[in-house]
Amino acid sequence: MAELKHHDEPTHHEHHIVSPGVYLAICATLLVLTATTTAVSYVDLGEYNTVVALAIACTKMTLVVLFFMHIKYSSKLTKLTVAAGFFTFIVLIMMTMTDYISRAWGRW
Amino acid sequence: MSTILSLPDQSTASLPKVSYLNKEYGLKSWLLTQDHKRIAILYLIAITFFFFVGGAMAALIRLELLTPQTDLLAADTYNKVFSAHGIIMVFFFLVPVAPAVLGNFLIPLMIGARDVAFPKINLLSWYLFVSGGCIELTMMVFGGVDTGWTFTTPLSTHYLNTNVVAAAMGIFVAGFSSILTGLNFLVTIHRMRAPGMTWFRLPLFIWSYYATSFIFVLATPVIAIALVLVVLERIIGIGVFDPAKGGDPLLFQHLFWFYSHPAVYVMILPGMGVISEVVACFCRKRVFGYTAVAFSSVAIGVFSFFVWAHHMFIMGISSYSALVFSLMTMLVAVPSAIKIFNWSATMYKGSITFDTPMLYTLGFIGLFTIGGLTGVFLASMGMDIHLTETYFVVAHFHFVMVGGMVTAFMAGLHFWWPKITGRMYPESMGRIAAVILFTGFNLTFFPQFILGYLGMPRRYAAYPPEFQVLNVFSSAGATVLAVGYLLPLLYLTWSLKYGKIAGANPWQAAGLEWEIQSPPLTENFPVTPIVTHEAYDYEWLASKKGSEVPTVG
Amino acid sequence: MHSISPVLWQFLIKWLTNFAIFPPEASTIAPYADALYFFLILISLVGLIAVVAMVVTFAIRYRQEKNPVPTPIEGSTLLEATWTIIPLILFMVCFVWGALLYFRIYSPPPNAMNIYVVGKQWMWKAEHPGGQHEINALHIPVGRPIQLTLISQDVFHSFSVPAFRVKREVIPGRYTTVWFEATTPGVYHLFCTQYCGTLHSDMIGWIYAMSPQDYQAWEAGSTSGNSLAQSGERLFAALGCNSCHNSGPNAHGPNLANVFGSHLQLKNGQFVTVDDAFLRDTILNPTLHEVAGYAPIMPTYQGQVSEEGLIDLVEYIKRLDSQYRIEQTIENSAAQPVQTGTAPAETSAPALAPGTVKQ
Amino acid sequence: MDSHTLAAQTADTGHVEDEHAPFLRHHFESVPQQREAATFGMWLFLTTEIMFFGGLFCSYLIFRNWYYPAFVAGSHTLHIWAGTLNTTVLIVSSFTMAMAVHAAETRVRRALMGWMIATLILGCGFLCVKAYEWHDEWVDHHVPGLNFGPESFLHGTKAYPDDKLPLDVAEKTQLYFSLYFLMTGMHALHMIIGVSLLTILLIQVRGGKYVNGHVAPIENFGLYWHFVDIVWIFLFPLLYLISRHQ
After folding, report:
1. How far is C338 from chain B (nearest CA, A)?
2. What domains, with CATH codes, occur in chain D?
3. C204 exposed, middle or buried (CB, 10 Å; 0-12, 13-18, 19+)?
4. Into how many domains does chain C fold?
């Protein structure tokens, strides 16, 4: 049995059941945010329109991921997987953009 | 006291009565199997077939290039042949070969699991692979495609009238096979390890397959969407890659290489895993600097996502971004260098034998060093201007892919052949084949470095006559290389029936897969193993008495 | 001697006469490229020899017959750090050196002579400012920096001259530039190195590097009459460009005299330097680059002017150095109606112009 | 020592009564291990989906920067009410799906069925609204490659009279619509797959499955459904809400 202690990663992660109240609150928040983002798009904020729209979208995504998708209560491994997915997504966008943005800088 | 003496004599071993090979009979039991070992065999058969189809295309290419004129093949046929060679070899041989064959067979055995996490998905991915391959072969029968394996837009979308759509769809389907394989391996490695099998007790093979699987899962979807865009551009003209409609043809190359550069590491990382196992076993030592080798696999996997635009230095990307990508490419070369030095250092104070897998491994170390260092030539931006799109590039990636990956795969295939089939291959034939392969390979591809610096462009059906001499050398070498590949096909097939019985552990190697009978039972481990020692613990193995080491009498 | 078969004999002759490991060094850049190449070969050899020496020595010294009992070694942080840091430093040197060479190859000197090259399936068309047109050939003087402005009419091509160690992708819809200065008169290969379709391997030509005297003689002997700027002037008139770009007090379009090389402010507040690429882009996508102070009324000429025509226009606008030249163009176009082929376009309604105006 | 006792030792936190659960597949040691594996596999699959849409988002970003006015005008032709409605529908469907997972976890079959049916209806509703929008775009000749014509952008619209584009910019709206159809099309494809899977699961639930503690399939389908919702959460502002104030 002593050897089993070396098994660093527990094969089982305590499963957490989220209460319906939390779901309802999140759903309501998401709907409010949807209304907000639609409304804000009619206000002229210049460059910030895009920023605000994306910020709201990211907030909504975070809420869905954390609560509807239970990431808040998940194992570190699952959290890392999600992080890895977004990280690679960012790499794709950012590294491609290094080309497209800097094309305007020089003569090439 | 020698290591060898304390182990039971394997020569008296006989084949086990029940194994995964003879548990069930009939074609149906194979085609509907969910056993990872049988699926590995299915992959081996399909992939060997594709390898020899691709090899036949390579033979045609080398024959055509014997003379400067287009005499054997017309230019359009030549283009179709090299495209077929590229598509088959990259997407239907190099990418799946090591993960799907060796990975499927060995990952559960090495970590002490009964199967991969999702056996049905595993079978599904074989069917996807075969369907993708069938689409490609059908496409080739009905006229082929002449885009090259890179599908460069706008050539592929607007200027060719060959079967681009079918070719792209075949790769799309096969891509899902890769994704599912990678997903399966990741879950297996994370969730199915035997008790006591901690991360730092894993064989280095598993570490490199782990990195490979991550690339599969995260990079493959991008080429899938890129190919979908090509198909839509071709069929209905959506304009994303069409400069006339305001699109950017270079965007395709970004998306394509975002997958296809990491895919190169998908091809080489499993090879590196094999080399680690073989070096340790035939030096009878733990791999020098286990942690460094393990983390360099992961580092290669991570860095591989940051380097793709080095294929595009002269293609019109901004020079500032070329700088970034060149720098990252130099960084990714470092972990590879670390591995090469660590393997070499493993031999220090070892007790080395030179069986076939070890010969292939030594060949790998030499060829991969050349392949890797010539990669630095291409990563160096100013040098890349002269060398890119020439035979230098062709030589470089064949050194890495064929000299590296295929040699490593041959090492692995010979090393685990007794575990897979229960029988030994003929050792002397194996050694001869390894030497022929090494010689033939260098003869074929070394002249191409010189051709490249002389400026001979790739994908030329006809070339100026001053390049003929080196091309003749190259083609001559290719015949030797062909013998080097046909020979193993023959003697390995022969050994299925006539090979010596191997016994559970013919190499006296450490590792869970060698503690069970060969060929293994369908459920792999009758009793779930409990791991109490580090990987490659040859001292531990040597201290065991003969009766304590499991074998099959 | 007689016993050797004629085929083999031929082959030997070829081998002896043609064997080369390096292409000729025929440009000012070639020695720089070769220097880096030799450096890279050197570090590769050192690396390879180090690895092979290690492997061979260990293989001999520690083979089983000689060393039956292995000595377990975990690793050595110091050693591993050494062979991490030394390659890292060497690779960084390669990076910096390579980057410097890259910028040297792709930064043309300001006094370079400009030649336009259009790539199409499957030929190279060179257009000299003096109006000389060449196909699959390029005549250049030695000892003078030559800048090529490259564009493709269809797919990606790649303009490669191994003897000069330069290469540049020729992109559809975008100008790219490359420059070189030939040092030795001679005839050198010009390859298309980017796979471009069926006859990719036929898209090769020759670079004729000539002494300045020979070049002048060639230039004088092969001109077709109109310089690029002159052709551009006609096209400018034929497309009705001067109805807006006439530099008059009530002109609808910006004054084009001396516009090349100037800094313009766009409507979105950004500044751009007017270069070949900007001129070409504004002809095709005028409203994407709205210049401050002008209404976006210019129509697009996408699909109506061939790449050669665009080059003529660009070359014309480049050379518009005074008010006088513009007035001359207007007078010329009024006095002497343009040739028949381009006549319909004169009606200043470009949308009606059938097909390509200039070929 | 047989494998079962060993397995029981390994999964020391596992429920012993689950050891012989009928849905435990032979190669897993315990139910929690199987469930964790399934969840992890699902998440990995979702990361591939992120990258799959990643290529499209990347293309979108590039062309939006290049042809911003065209993207504004293209966006203005979409029905904002439809976009907002569909966002709401998807968010509510995500909520009902989360509730369905909750019902499966608490093993209440009626509730599970109810929430799943609600999700199914909302999903179909989403697709109907989307189909209506696509039909409108077809009528307006805004479908690239099939019936695209930039004419409608040359004059401006009632709501946005400023959207009077010169021809060269108007032609670039084709890229906007290409990406619009690609992104919403891919999203709708995922919705259709989701609705089909949901129907299959619903039939299985009716047959009594997934309320005996075997919640992994429902849970993983939930993850998929929420993912599709997240994609839409980004598509909505990116496609519908570009400079609505102009």
Report:
1. 28
2. 19-155+165-240 (1.20.120.80)
3. buried
4. 3
* Closest listed residue to residue C178, CA positions, set C106, C229, C280: C106
Give the dihedral sign, CA A88/A89/A92/A95: negative
Question: Phi/psi class of residue C225: alpha, beta or left (left: φ > 0; alpha: ψ in -120 to 50)?
Answer: left
Domain assignment present for residue C356? The answer is: no
- Select from B198, B254, B318 the Cβ nearest to the Cβ of A108: B318
Whether A95 and chain B come into contact, CB under 8 Å, resolves to yes
Residue of C nearest to A106 (CA): C273
Domains of chain B by start residue, with CATH: 27-542 (1.20.210.10)
Does residue C37 fall inside a structural domain? yes
Which chains would you list as touching B if contact means 3+ CB atom pairs under 8 Å? A, C, D
Cβ of residue A77 closer than 8 Å to a chain B Cβ: yes
- At residue C288, φ and ψ (nearest 5 deg) are -75, -20
B116 → chain D, closest CA residue: D27
Residue D49 to chain B, least CA–CA distance (Å):
7
* Best A26, A30, A101 residue to mutate vs chain D (most D CBs within 10 Å): A30
Residues of A in contact with D30 (CB under 8 A): 11-12
User: Do C123 and C140 fall within a single domain?
Assistant: yes
Res C342: pLDDT: 39
Query: Closest approach of chain C CAs to the CA of A105, in angstroms?
Result: 10
Q: Is C315's pLDDT higher than 90?
A: no
Give yes or no: residues C202 and C265 share one domain: no
Q: Which residues of A touch D226 (CB under 8 A)?
A: 64-65, 68-69
Q: How big is the C-D interface in CB pairs under 8 Å?
A: 27
Per-residue pLDDT tens digits for A97-108:
989 988 877 654
The DSSP bridge pattern shows strands C176-180 and C186-192 to be unpaired
Element (H, E) at B79: helix B75-89
Measured in angstroms, the CA of B230 and the nearest CA of chain D are apart by 12
Q: Inform me whether the pLDDT recorded for B9 exceeds 70.
A: no
Residues of B in contact with D178 (CB under 8 A): 238-240
Residue labelled with tokens 């094309």: A103
Same domain? C214 vs C235: no
Query: Are C90 and C194 within one domain?
Result: no
C302 is a domain residue: yes
Are residues C210 and C234 located together in one domain of the fold?
no
C-alpha B341/C-alpha B334 separation (Å) is 11
Are residue C217 and residue C256 in the same domain, yes or no?
no
Interface check for D8 against chain A (CB to CB < 8 A): the answer is no
Average of per-residue pLDDT values in chain B: 91
Instruction: Please name the residues in contact with B116: beta carbons below 8 A apart, sequence gap of 6 or more.
Output: B36, B104, B107, B108, B122, B184, B185, B187, B188, B192, D27
Among C221, C247, C282, give the residue marking a domain's end: C221
Choice among B339-348, B355-364, C7-16, C265-274 with the minimum mean pLDDT:
C7-16
Segment D139-191, tens digit of pLDDT? 988 998 888 888 888 887 777 777 788 888 888 899 999 999 999 999 999 99
- Residues of chain B positioned with their CB less than 8 A from the CB of A102: 318, 320-321
Q: Do C120 and C208 belong to one domain?
A: yes
Residues on C contacting D at a C-beta cutoff of 8 Å: 284-288, 296-300, 302
Domain that holds residue C319: 228-351
* Residue C186: C-alpha distances to residues B67, C144, C195, C206 (Å): 26, 15, 27, 10
Max intra-chain CA distance, chain C: 101
Of C178, C195, C221, the last residue of a domain is: C221
Say how many CA atoms lie within 13 Å of B391 toward its Cβ.
23
- C1 lies in a domain? no
Which DSSP letter does residue C137 get? E
Q: C134 and C46 share a domain? A: no
CATH number at residue C164: 2.60.40.420
Count of pairs with CB atoms under 8 A, one residue in A, one in C: 6
